[in-house]
Each structure stands twice: as C-alpha cells, then as structure tokens.
Amino acid sequence: MVLFESGRRLAAMLDDAANVLGPRPAAVCRELTKLHEEVRSGTAAQLADHYRRHPAKGEVTLVIAGTGRPPAPTVGDAEITLLKALVAGEPLAPRHAAKLVGAATGCAVNALYESLSMADP
Question: Quick one: CATH architecture of 2-64?
Fold first, then answer.
C-alpha cells in the first residue's frame, strides 16, 4: 500500500496501521526528490514510536508491505462448469463436488458450493 499522509497525523495513522495490519514492514518516505529526502523503515509500531517523538515535517509517503500471501482464487465459469459436471455424472453430493474442485483449484469450498446452488441448471 502506498499512502500520502500529513506529518501531523503520521504517528496516529501508523498506530492504526499497526493495530489493524499487524507487524508488517513499512517505510516512511519524507521529502522525496528534495534536498532533505529521508526514508525510515521498520514496523508500523516502531515507526509510530519514532514519529511521536520526532514529528515529521514536509511531504510524507507511507509504504506498507502486503501480507506476502497470494490472493485467494475466485470462483469462475470454469469452476462452476466442473462442479456441474461432477454433480451431473455419477451421484455425487454437491458439497463433496465443491470439496474436490476446491482442492484442485484453491477456491474456497463454501464459495464453490454457494456458486453451484446459485448457478443455472
């Protein structure tokens, strides 16, 4: 995430980020491309502590790392078609079909099951 924040609100924003996002790596970039450019990195909590004691001046850009996990796959037409084929063949409970497709694709089983029940016959 890349955020632009006021120096006056930076410490409070970093506290909020630490509480909501946990101990992710972050960097506060101040006065980028200018004479007094500064980049300070650490966790959001560490940075909040620093900027409470030393309020930031000037333009501030905050960069917060992602979770490091790839996003969960979404249920698409291919998964719904596969679910229908599994259910239409040999007698197979829709929940079991959703578990099989979920294991094969990484999609959430509940989302697959709900998609199957909402899909056109």
Answer: 2-Layer Sandwich (3.30)
pLDDT in tens, 13-39: 999 999 999 888 999 999 988 888 999
CB 11 within 8 A of CB 53: no
Q: From the CA atom positions of the chain, what is the Rg in Å?
A: 23
Whole-model pTM above 0.70? Answer: no
Angle, vertex CA 36, rays to CA 35 and CA 42, nearest 5: 140
Q: Tell me the domain boundaries of the chain.
A: 2-64, 77-118
Contact 64, 44 (CB under 8 A): yes
